[in-house]
Specification:
heterodimer, A: alpha/beta, ten-stranded mixed β-sheet, 10 helices, 19% strand, B: mainly alpha, 0% strand
Chain lengths: 298, 542
């Protein structure tokens, strides 16, 4: 999997922006592969026609003001630790933010999009969800909660032995190599307990674990990287709630600071779908950043 | 007598005691008085006239009723599963007015009440005696009897109530329309609902409700009388019945005066608790295992054959069994629907549409199935085993059926007393919830009409029932109530259209509101930013 070279940071002009910039700065330091950064904001208003109403003080293009504001923040939170990193502030004015972002990703060959993930803030995840569903998006998306830790030391890759999982694992492994972080492979095994009430649950659990292990062996054998082929997979039993919650709570226990997961994406049609586990992970309140690896190679 | 009361009430009518909407109140009152006067003076011929209208309706429009009623079930299932399911009655932040148990109790008491006690023993026995479809064995006849009883009391009536109740609740709580039947037709009729046609719709609704209630109360009081006579031998005659009506009307009036929260709710909960005790007692005293067995099997058979018996129209046999049963019930439930629908709407603020449909459709249906399986099942058990003689008792006098059944089991005097209390309290809740509904319509859709008016309607229901008991004509009135089912069936179709239109608009608005909210917060962010930056720039330039 190719290295993460071009980074796009999506800013929304709220209090989360400094945190996101600080995280981007940390990420740039840990990975050391980033060559270009774009700081982007989309003005989702037809402000030119609406401005007289709610922006009476406006004396020059809004894009200019916002660019200034972002540059100031970049100076403060990002540039200090990356004095030589080439960057550009882009302010667009499009009605549809997800489309505008994915268009930009395509034009600038962006590898990774960084966006804020609001906790317990209803209705705030819409842009993220829509962006993940844009079929032409090729960049990976990293969602950073306001409460995320400013480290990259332990990566958890949630896998289910599918093709999207394989890509997610490759990406996780590439991040691990760049950053030197620890990498844990995690699978949540789930047994249809209710269908076999007469089989003791202990046996079933054993069987489910065994079958998951076999699948994992097959899955990991196909990896090219010899080091990766040696890796063990942590298999946990599904308990209560959803697989997504299990992944999250396991990652919390491991002290992970990044969860990597795949999104479904083979053909044109399937890219509309986001895996259900991934979708849940996107939606739950979480303090751990989540990297959604898009399916298509370029 | 009604006339006098009416006029004196008008004279003293201040807004404090009376808050009427004249274009509905007077025509409705006049129609009711005229109708009763006519029934009393003409007598027998009235019964024949309405009887033949009813027969003509069933003969020619039976298929239409069957179609419409099945359509209502389909509409309910669609709504519960659709994107509209999350719309909340009363707006996004509305909270339910009543606890779920109280809500179910009220739904159940208002919707079936007396009828359930009246028919739960008699109906399965009737179908067992005269099987609607050909059967080869007695067991087959019993199975079929329960299946048809379930059909008549199960999902279909509750689907009708759901559609009407939901339409009313939606247009009242989400659209600020008055809580009257006319309010529902706003998307179709526009401002005309405030004019002549709106008045016509409401007047029909008031008349149908009052006639329906009065007949139902008339039948109920006969059953109470039969029970009391059976137990204490006080005589089964109109004098006793009129006294009973008077007593019960006093109770209903008290409950109505106390209002929905103190009166009707408390009584309904009491009703349901007492009903459950009665049900459990029968379950234990009766053939317990048989009842459990048959409950499970009846539900399965009902679900399996629902499409078939639900759409059965006797097309190839040319028989007329259905006219006096299925079509009768469909017309009856439809003519009841403005009343039950309004009552359900009144108590359902704060529920989501999915909750509403599933609550109104499934819970009362299941409870009814259990009830029918226990009481009807016990009666069938006796018949199948040749114990007692319920069939002939039912043939003689339907009102005694329940007590004849109870007599075959232990502690019959105790259970009969509970039965009588239950019929009475169902009677009271039907009467008082009916009064609340008529109040609301005749006051132009107010949710809490003045006390004087509540008393007026509660008393007039009792008076109408008593008058008809004494003068005869209860059956004529029942036939008249049922004939309103046909025009209401057309209104139901219109209502579904109207509701769908309203829900789609609401859904769009919900989406827009959310988008608007986000836009506003974004605008604020931008405005703050611009203000801050322009403030910063000015001093730096100087």
């Amino acid at each position: 999997m190719k290295e993460t070279k071009v980074l796009l940071v999506g800013l929304d002009l709220t209090e989360s922006d400094p945190l996101l910039l600080r995280y981007a700065s940390m990420l740039g330091k840990s990975l050391g592969t980033i060559r270009q950064v774009y700081f982007v904001h989309n003005i989702k208003l037809a402000y030119e026609s609406e401005a007289p109403g709610f922006l009476p003080e406006l004396d020059r293009p809004l894009e200019e003001i916002i660019t200034e504001e972002i540059e100031e923040q970049v100076d403060q939170f990002f540039k200090r630790s990356h004095p030589d990193m080439p960057f550009e502030v882009i302010v667009t004015n499009e009605t549809n933010t997800p489309t505008a972002l994915s268009q930009l990703c395509k034009e600038q060959e962006v590898d990774l999009v960084l966006m804020g993930k609001k906790i317990a803030y209803i209705g705030s995840g819409i842009v993220v969800q829509k962006l993940l569903r844009v079929p032409t998006l090729t960049a990976n998306v990293l969602l950073v909660p306001d409460t995320a830790s400013q480290h990259l030391q332990h990566i958890v890759a949630g896998i289910d032995f599918s093709e999207p999982s394989r890509r997610a694992l490759l990406q996780a492994s590439s991040l691990q190599q760049a950053s030197g972080a620890e990498l844990t492979l995690l699978h949540v095994a789930h047994i249809p307990t209710h269908y076999f009430p007469y089989i003791p649950e202990k046996d079933m659990k054993e069987k489910a674990r065994e079958s998951a292990r076999k699948k994992y062996e097959k899955f990991i054998k196909r990896m090219e990287d010899p080091e990766l082929r040696q890796k063990e997979c942590r298999i946990v039993q599904k308990h209560g709630e959803s697989i997504a919650r299990n992944i999250y709570s396991e990652a919390l226990q491991l002290g992970a600071d990044l969860i990597v997961t795949g999104s479904i994406g083979h053909g044109k049609v399937k890219t509309f779908l986001l895996g259900s586990v991934t979708q849940r992970l996107v939606n739950i309140d979480s303090h751990i950043p989540l990297l959604v690896v898009k399916g298509k190679d370029k | 007598m009604d006339n006098d009361k009416n006029q004196s009430a008008e004279r003293e009518g201040s807004k404090r005691y009376f808050d009427i909407y004249a274009p509905v109140f007077y025509p409705a009152a006049i129609i009711i008085i005229l109708f009763i006067a006519l029934t009393l003076t003409v007598g027998e011929p009235m019964e024949r006239v309405f009887g033949s209208i009813q027969t003509g309706m069933s003969d020619n429009a039976g298929w239409f009723f069957v179609l419409v009623v099945n359509g209502m079930v389909a509409v309910c299932l669609f709504l519960a599963l659709s994107k509209y399911g999350n719309i909340r009655l009363g707006g996004k932040d509305a909270e339910p007015d009543f606890s779920t148990f109280a809500w179910f109790s009220m739904l159940f008491s208002a919707g079936m009440g007396i009828g359930l006690l009246f028919f739960s023993v008699a109906e399965p026995i009737f179908h067992y005696d005269t099987p609607p479809m050909e059967v080869s064995s007695q067991a087959g006849a019993a199975r079929q009897a329960m299946k048809f009883t379930f059909l008549h009391w199960g999902l279909h009536p509750w689907a009708i109530y759901s559609v009407v109740g939901l339409s009313l609740a939606f247009f009242t709580f989400n659209r600020g329309m008055p809580l009257t039947i006319r309010g529902v037709f706003y998307p179709v009729l526009g401002d005309r609902i405030y004019g002549f046609w709106g008045n016509v719709i409401d007047v029909i609704a008031v008349a149908a409700t009052l006639f329906g209630l009065a007949t139902s109360l008339g039948l109920g009081v006969q059953q109470i009388n039969s029970g009391l006579d059976f137990l204490f031998g006080i005589g089964d005659n109109t004098t006793v019945q009129v006294i009973l009506i008077a007593l019960i009307t006093v109770a209903a009036t008290t409950s109505v005066v106390l209002g929905l929260d103190k009166g009707v709710r408390v009584l309904s909960e009491l009703n349901l608790r007492l009903g459950l005790i009665f049900l459990i007692a029968m379950l234990i005293l009766g053939p317990t295992l048989f009842l459990f067995d048959s409950f499970v099997q009846n539900i399965g058979a009902y679900l399996r054959d629902l499409p078939m018996i639900g759409s059965w129209t006797e097309a190839y046999t040319g028989t007329e069994w259905q006219n006096s049963w299925t079509i009768f019930y469909w017309a009856w439930w439809i003519s009841w629907s403005p009343y039950v629908g309004m009552f359900i709407a009144r108590v359902s603020r704060g529920r989501t549409i999915r909750e509403f449909i599933l609550g109104v459709l499934l819970v009362p249906s299941l409870l009814t199935f259990l009830w029918m399986s226990v009481f009807g099942g016990s009666a069938l058990f006796l018949e199948l085993n040749g114990i007692g003689n319920i069939a002939s008792a039912v043939g003689d006098n339907i009102s005694t059926a329940l007590f004849v059944l109870l007599a075959e089991f232990p502690f019959s005097s105790l259970t009969s007393v509970i039965g009588i209390i239950l019929v009475t309290s169902f009677f009271v809740t039907s009467s008082d919830s009916g009064s609340l509904v008529i109040d609301s319509i005749t006051s132009g859709g107010k949710l809490d009409a003045p006390v004087g008016q509540r008393i007026f309607w509660a008393v007039s229901e009792g008076a109408v029932a008593a008058t008809l008991l004494v003068g005869g004509g209860l059956l004529a009135l029942q036939a008249a109530a049922i004939t309103t089912g046909l025009p209401f069936a057309f209104l139901l179709i219109l209502m579904v259209y109207s509701l769908m239109k309203g829900l789609e608009e609401e859904y769009q608005e919900m989406q827009e509101r959310e988008a608007h909210r986000q836009k506003e917060s974004y605008q604020k962010t931008i405005a703050d930013l611009v203000r801050r930056r322009s403030g910063k720039d000015v001093p730096s330039e100087k």
